[in-house]
UniProtKB/TrEMBL annotation, chain A:
One of the GO biological process terms: membrane lipid biosynthetic process
Protein's UniProt name: Digeranylgeranylglycerophospholipid reductase
Segments forming domain FAD-dependent oxidoreductase 2 FAD-binding: 5-47
List of residues binding a 2,3-bis-O-(geranylgeranyl)-sn-glycerol 1-phospholipid: 371
Cellular component GO terms held in the UniProt record: membrane
Signal peptide: none
Lineage start: Archaea, Methanobacteriati, Methanobacteriota, Methanomada group, Methanobacteria
One Pfam short name: FAD_binding_2
Similarity comment text for this entry: Belongs to the geranylgeranyl reductase family. DGGGPL reductase subfamily.
Automatic annotation (TrEMBL), chain B:
Protein name (Swiss-Prot/TrEMBL): 4Fe-4S binding protein
Any matching Pfam family: Fer4_7
InterPro entries referenced in this protein's UniProt entry, alphabetically: 4Fe4S_Fe-S-bd, 4Fe4S_Fe_S_CS
Domain 4Fe-4S ferredoxin-type intervals: 1-26, 27-55
GO molecular function: oxidoreductase activity
Coiled coil: none
């Protein structure tokens, strides 16, 4: 049986960041990932904020940044666009559009350089407790293996099976799981090539559609829907969006991505004896935007640091690991609550209401308008905003 | 449960399975049929309609 201090399950950005920081903190670390190629296929629109990378201490690299996006363009159902640019407003998820297949590998390489051992094509199949440790059963190329760890960091994505093996309630109701489909396309003719673009309304029931530029005429064109709000699949909605959107009339797909995005707000119980849950598995995703790269990595960093500290303490109990929950709630949970409110408001709007709002804001000079004035304007056209968003401002 | 060949192994079904019965491998899906109660949630969320009931 293999033995280690910390076993990280899943080498996405959250898992690799957890592994890196656990190793930097002095722990012996193994990372397993079920895939033969870390980062592939991507299940992501690939946008990150500059601030986020900075906060994580990660220098942007031309190897995995495809381009910068300096603005946001929001389009209502009848095509009315509101353009926001970086110099005018602070943008939560704009900044860089990544090449995730390369980015994820580089994050895993950083974990390796910090001392973590990485095993690819290795699938965790179960978990049991032994003494005060955990034994994870896994499979690698037809070989069964067992890894005994003092701490397991579950970074196994939206499937989040590992947390449930530890008794945590990581399963998601369909209303908290955005169902997503995306083409990476060439020949995309964007109205504002420097902007990431969002389309709201019945084009993507319960979510939104996006176009994220990746340089030249390349873009990720996708959408997320709630399956509780439509009878069509995400893929069917995507085909309709691509057919009707002016930007994609001459575009061709070179890749199809699908997957779930956990948008219900931060998982409450993220800790069990010997186990920490992080990243998508703990719903570390902005519930409004669905973005989860930076937040997952911030959570992963905390998980790695807490695991290393627990190793130093020689105490892997729920009680000693529980500080992880407080730290994550402080880092992510509070802002997620606000984003969740904003999302509820957004999803309550009909196509007609969205058009009206876009019409009011389309000519606004966001450079001079402050938040209070903006809210006043919004409430005038959409009185229920006061009820749904009032407490946020 | 039938897994159609166009399944993309994204794992969204596994994330919503109330009983944690779906194991997503790199290019296969393993479902614990014995304990499945046919709630159909996995069928409904699939982005590409790759899952279907037996009947």
């Amino acid at each position: 049986m293999m033995e280690t201090d910390v076993l990280v399950i899943g080498a996405g950005p959250a898992g690799s960041t957890a592994a890196k920081h656990a190793a930097l903190g002095g722990a012996q670390v193994i990372v397993i990932d079920k895939k033969s190629e870390i980062g592939s296929p991507k299940r992501c629109a690939e946008g990150v904020s500059k601030d986020g990378l900075k906060k994580l201490g990660i220098e942007p690299s031309s190897r995995w940044v495809t381009r910068e996006a300096t603005g946001v363009r929001m389009v209502s159902p009848n095509g009315t666009a509101v353009n926001l640019t970086e110099d005018k407003v602070k943008l939560p998820e704009a900044g860089y559009i990544l090449e995730r297949k390369i980015f994820d590998k580089h994050m895993a390489m950083d974990a390796a350089r910090a001392g973590a051992r990485i095993m690819v094509k290795t699938l965790a199949t179960g978990m049991r407790r032994e003494d005060d440790q955990v034994v994870v059963t896994a499979e690698n190329m037809g070989q069964e293996l067992e890894i005994k760890a003092k701490i397991v960091i579950a970074a196994d994505g939206p499937e989040s099976r590992v947390g449930r093996w530890a008794g945590l309630r990581t399963a998601l109701a369909p209303k908290n799981m955005e169902s997503c489909a995306q083409f990476e396309m060439a020949g995309v003719q964007m109205a504002e090539p420097d902007c990431i673009e969002f389309h709201f309304g019945s084009v993507a029931p319960g979510g939104y559609a996006w176009i994220f530029p990746k340089g030249d005429d390349i873009a990720n064109v996708g959408l997320g829907i709630l399956t509780t709000r439509t009878d069509k699949t995400a893929y069917q909605h995507l085909l309709e969006f691509v057919e009707s959107n002016p930007a994609t009339q001459n575009a061709q797909p070179v890749e199809l991505n699908v997957g779930g995005d956990p948008v219900g707000g931060l998982l409450k119980k993220k800790v069990a004896d010997n186990v920490l849950v992080t990243g998508d598995a703990a719903s570390m995703v902005n519930p409004l935007t669905g973005g989860g790269i930076i937040s997952g990595m911030l959570g992963g960093r905390i998980a790695g640091q807490v695991a290393a500290q627990a190793m130093a303490d020689g105490d892997y109990s729920h009680k000693n690991l529980k500080v992880y929950e407080k730290l994550c709630d402080d880092e992510l949970g509070e802002s997620f609550k606000k984003y969740l409110k904003a999302k509820e408001y957004l999803l309550s709007l009909s196509d007609g209401e969205l058009d009206e709002i876009a019409d009011v804001f389309k000519d606004s000079d966001f450079e001079t308008i402050n938040t209070a004035e903006m809210v006043k304007k919004l409430i005038k056209i959409s009185p229920k905003a006061l009820l749904k968003l009032g407490k946020l401002f | 449960m039938i897994v159609n060949e166009w399944c993309m192994y994204c794992g969204e079904c596994a994330g919503v399975c109330p009983q944690n019965l779906i194991e997503v491998r790199e290019i296969s899906l393993k479902i614990n049929h014995d304990e499945c109660k046919d709630c159909g949630i996995c069928i409904k969320v699939c982005p590409v309609q790759a899952l279907q009931g037996d009947d």
